[in-house]
User: What shape does this take?
Amino acid sequence: MVQPAHSALWPDEPAPLPLDGAPVPEYGTGSLADLLPTLAAGQSVPGFEPRIRELAPADRNCVFLIDGLGWEQIRSHPDEAPFLTSLLGGSRGGTGRPITAGFPATTATSLASVGTGTEPGRHGLPGYTARNPDTGELMNQLRWKPWTDPHAWQPHPTVFRLADAAGVHTAQVSSPAFEHTPLTRVALSGGTFHGRLTGEERMDLAAEQLAAGDRSLVYTYYSEVDGKGHRFGVDSDAWRGQLMYVDRLAQRLAEQLPPRSALYVTADHGMIDIAFDEESRIDFDEDWELRAGVALLGGEGRARHVYAVPGAEADVLAVWQEVLGDRFWVAGRDEAVAAGWFGPRVDGRVLGRIGDVVAAACEDVVITASVGEPHESAMVGMHGSMTPVEQLVPLLEVRA
Assistant: This one.
């Protein structure tokens, strides 16, 4: 793989981490982007092949995505999640292994990977925020601000749409608030959307929708594990309470599966708590070295897209490697693409959305922006990078 050039500005500084040490997601055989194509192939939807070879086909498939509940979080909390823990050994078709989220390990990117069956380099949502090459502005891809034409930004059809067109009964069961969002339109649309407020209502309706067709593909979602983790941390009582609740939800759904069904419980990313001290939280807005030559700071704390002033790209890369290179994998755009961080292929329309410099944390550290991102900078729980705690997600299976 391509290695970053390193000419030490200060001889006593540690050398940057080699890029071939970054654990690239398992694109093509075991990532979130591979799940729905595998299920659709088992339902004889044209154009799909099974990518996650360990999964056996089922006529009726339900995906329950729990926002923020990574593999390591389940393993670390058997008392709070007895039902999910009991399924760990059968994860990924009985292998007892997780799958990978994709880079960056963040909600907008992961949901687009799930729904389109394509990697970030193809669907084009490469982070929490990314530069729009047409306008030069940062676009928040979770909140879709500033407004951008959704289908111009992400033109690939969803697996749900293709399955629905092939005669598979297709449904999404989620919060009513998500029905008309641009992210839902580009990542999770196709078939029928059913909005329900409570988790219990979603589980019951997901089971009903699963039984509504001879071939069914149903998606349901729960967000508050992630919400409590960001606000209070994954070591908090509030987060543990949410884990206990979602464990009961998963069991409730599993106990209602109709015949010839498979339920897959997965997540969009894991999460890690970051201490509130200067060593753990590097404030971009207070660091003149990191700001030098930077026009825009995108991404999020543990997976940064850095957009340089034209002509300053090489200097920004060198400084970020010198300052952060022993705690972050720091790559130029071409290096990150060549290393496969965003998948085996990056479409031309997506290339300019990726930072001139990409920085992914390998230690318990974040790059905050106290002025530009006050809300995000105050979060306890963080995610985005390629470390196991963020990148590994479950693929827990129940069959009826």
About this structure: The two ends are 44 Å apart (CA to CA). Residues 1-12 have pLDDT under 50 and may be disordered.
